[in-house]
Design a protein that fits this description.
Blueprint: E1 15-20, E2 35-39, E3 43-47, E4 56-59, E5 63-69, E6 76-83, E7 90-97, E8 103-109, E9 114-119, E10 125-130, E11 133-138, E12 145-148, E13 151-157, E14 164-170, E15 175-181, E16 184-190, E17 193-199, H1 209-214, E18 219-224, E19 230-236, E20 242-245, E21 249-253, E22 258-262, H2 271-283, E23 286-289
Antiparallel strand pairs: 1-2, 2-3, 3-4, 5-6, 6-7, 7-8, 9-10, 10-11, 12-13, 13-14, 14-15, 16-17, 17-18, 18-19, 20-21, 21-22, 22-23
Length: 290
């Protein structure tokens, strides 16, 4: 097994923890990294399998004592100690990461020495062994959900499926409609509609072939109604970290770019809306602003 995270490390290091998430709660996306190896110098490596040639490498910049995945493999907790900038004081911390190495949160813990960490079965609490005590901390996951037109839209993973299971629950009639989406990133709702943002599927046909050849789309925005029926979609080439929805437009933004899309739905238009649509056709329905 090749350990790429230690390429620039010097001196003796030892393994602080190994945890392989077995997929019992499903995966956040297909082919997701799930084998985590962490060393006491803070270097971590997350792999898809034991011979992964492109692992995710993390430098937590801390002295690591224990690591563990949550119940569904969406969050890796790295426990240990961290020194302050002036190196005069050391304090206990737990760092939380996604399987792709994105840092989520830092939790400071009182006490002299942390010895271990464990997740509760449902992923809503963690137990921390510090000195001669056991501390418990509540975890508030970032759920994918929304509410539109008396319908609650929420997503979760299943062990037998690679996709996210997206449920449209009509709270008035107590009816549920299920839709499966690969690599779901977020759910955004407003009024009567819902936007599902996900990573693009290379096997699907994409719009604007000439544009895609120059700048291939990596993500897709899917406009759905309250029962999960797709009404419109748009492939984009920016990471939709933030998405919002109005009656006429979808705005998606990355860290430095935002994308404006006027979506289409089948409905009767007023005279004012017809004028707006006519003007939009002349100017174009999309805007990308740097």
């Amino acid at each position: 097994m090749t350990i790429g995270c230690l390429a620039s490390a010097s001196g003796a290091v030892s393994i602080a923890g190994i945890h392989w998430y077995a997929g019992t709660g499903g995966y956040v996306e297909p082919n997701c990294p799930c084998l985590a190896i962490c060393f006491d110098n803070g270097k971590c490596q997350i792999m898809r399998y034991e011979n992964d040639e492109n692992p995710v490498c993390i430098d937590s910049s801390m002295n690591v004592v224990s690591i563990q995945w949550n119940h569904c493999g969406s969050v890796l907790a790295v426990a240990g100690s961290l020194r302050t900038a002036n190196m005069e004081k050391e304090f206990n911390v737990v760092q939380f990461y996604t399987p792709f190495g994105e840092h989520l949160r830092t939790l400071k813990v009182s006490g002299k020495q942390m010895w271990g960490i464990a997740w509760e079965g449902g992923g809503l609490r963690i137990g921390l062994a510090v000195d001669s005590y056991i501390y418990f901390a509540n975890i508030r996951p970032d759920y994918k959900w929304g509410y539109c037109c008396s319908t609650v839209v929420y997503a979760y993973t299943k062990p037998e499926r690679q996709e996210h299971c997206v449920v449209f629950w009509d709270t008035k009639n107590n009816e549920k409609f299920v839709k499966y989406v690969k690599s779901l990133m977020s759910i955004t709702t407003s009024g009567d509609f819902c936007i599902l943002a996900s990573k693009g599927d290379e096997t699907l046909p994409q719009e604007d072939a000439e544009l895609e050849a120059v700048c291939p789309a990596k993500y897709v925005l899917i406009l759905c109604n309250s029962i999960g029926t797709p009404l419109d979609s748009k492939y984009i080439d920016i990471d939709p970290m933030f998405v919002t929805l109005t009656k006429t437009h979808v705005i998606a933004a990355s860290k430095d770019v935002f994308y404006l899309w006027q979506y289409r739905v089948a409905k009767k238009l007023t005279a004012l809306e017809i004028n707006q649509v006519t003007k939009t056709k002349k100017e174009g329905r999309e805007r990308r602003v740097l």
